Amino acid sequence: MKKRMIPLVLVLGLVLGGCGKTADSAGENETGSEESGGAGVSAAGTLPEGTGNGTAGRENVSVSEGAEEVGEGMPEETGSGEGTSEGTGEESTGETGSGKGTPVVQGGPFGELSVMLPEGWKYELCPIDSDKLLNGRYGIRFSPDDAEEGYIELCYIEQFGVCGTGLEEETVTIAGVPAFKGVYDGHGYWDFISFQENFRGMVALTSCVEGWWSEYGEEATEILETVSFDPQVKEGGACVYHEESQEDQIGLSLTLEEISASGAMLHYNQFDAEAPTGELQDGDAFVIEVKKDGRWEMAPLVVEGDYGFHEVAYPIFAGTVTERELDWTCLYGELAPGEYRIRKSVSDFRKTADYDQYELCAYFFLN
User: What are φ and ψ of residue 39, in 5° steps?
Assistant: First the structure.
């Protein structure tokens, strides 16, 4: 299937060792470059209303820590592989346009998505940081039971945008709200449906559905009449991209994943291997600040008396993603809901007493 649009989601990577405990690893550059066979997305996002202290900012977002929780009455999931949960809709607990079905729910830091799937459809929950979706931060992937390939992704995307030629777009009403439906090159299935108003941020995308669309396409569109998005039900946290999260002089960016009240995974994405003049290094030291009344201040410490960090240097590997695991409870305890930033120093080390120092900040919020 032709790739008609290019995903434009900004993905950054980093991870930290807390209070002298560090785990280093070099991973593949997580750029999300898989083809979706449909709409490419732009994910320049905004902080959701009601997040943290209520302050919103127009920034790119990488979300984290979603739970694979489902609504009341949800049948027990059956695994179909490592890290995968699928359901077959064997219990009939609700109505869809094609009959009784199963409610499927996926929560996340920007709101809760749900859909009712009729008998004969399978699904997979895609929580935050699971890397299961081709596009979007978290959501639900579903398809007919007998489909060998292809699926629909119902996902949350902070700010959806498309690019490419041959696009025909129309405004429709689905699940009682207006939405934009897009079709490329006049083929028989829709490529994306972008919901608006109260469901803004929720997007349905098709991928490799040609083999079953003639038989199930009408039912698939009926299923979307059952979707819902509740921005008031939030869980987990998100890392918000900021200009201070990237330093072009050394080709390095910083972000967080798997954010919780007690810690996170810090990702250093060394995207330009030619930029540094030496070896990039970081240490154990870090500072967390909290935003209060529009100003940044030191997050309250739980440690009593003086404290310090080990004087160590860990390599940040060139041209890839380096991870560090960070547990901040020894200094800050468990963080309350709010807006935060973590400061990290990075050295471009050439030799003893010959290095340049840079500071990067990762901005994040907790619900």
Answer: -75, 135
The pair phi, psi for residue 360, each rounded to 5°, is -120, 150
pTM score, two decimals?
A: 0.65
Instruction: With beta carbons less than 8 A apart as the criterion, state whether 324 and 306 touch.
Output: no
Alpha-carbon distance of 8 to 268, in angstroms, equals: 20
Burial 25-37 (b: 16+ CB within 10 A, else e): ebeeebebeebbb
Burial bucket for residue 184 (CB in 10 Å: 0-12, 13-18, 19+): buried
User: Can you read off the two tokens belonging to residue 92?
Assistant: 């009939």
Q: Which residues, 6+ apart, have CB-to-CB distance to 26 below 8 Å?
A: 317, 320, 321, 322
CB-side neighbour CA atoms (13 Å) of 258: 17
In this prediction, residues 185-195 reach a mean pLDDT of 94
Contact criterion met (CB below 8 Å) for 100 and 164: no
What gap in Å lies between CA 316 and CA 266, rounded to an integer? 12
pLDDT digits (tens, 9 = 90+) for 265-275: 999 999 999 99
CA distance 327 to 189: 47
Quote the CA–CA distance of 332 and 343 in Å, as a whole number.
14
Could you report the per-residue pLDDT of 310-360, keeping only the tens digit for each?
A: 889 999 999 999 999 999 999 999 999 999 999 999 999 999 999 999 999
